[in-house]
Amino acid sequence: NARFLDAPGGGRVAKDNAVLRGIAGRGSCRAFFPDPIDLTVIETLCAVALSATSKSDLKQRDIVIVDDPKVKLQLLELVSAQTWTSEASSLLIFCANNRRQRQIHEI
After folding, report:
1. What CA–CA distance (Å, rounded) separates 49 from 87?
2. For the whole model, what pTM was predicted?
3. For 12-21, what is each residue's pLDDT tens digit?
């Protein structure tokens, strides 16, 4: 992907490095199978993601799983330009949460 290769020296370095070319050239998948993913699988993946290390180990994010069709439709109206979202059986909304950071400052 050329957008990353225009950084100073980026094109020259990536040109000679297959790994960097692969990373810079990766894209996003916006196609989904019609089958819903089991909620247990989604919750497990979210738990694993939230257990990853983070700055000061404060876990400053939350994940909201939306699979209710009515709520999903309301959310999809907000991102109507992203038509691929209507194909997903569930939406995962990643929210910043600095509650723990604020608690530290109250101590």
Report:
1. 23
2. 0.61
3. 666 777 887 7
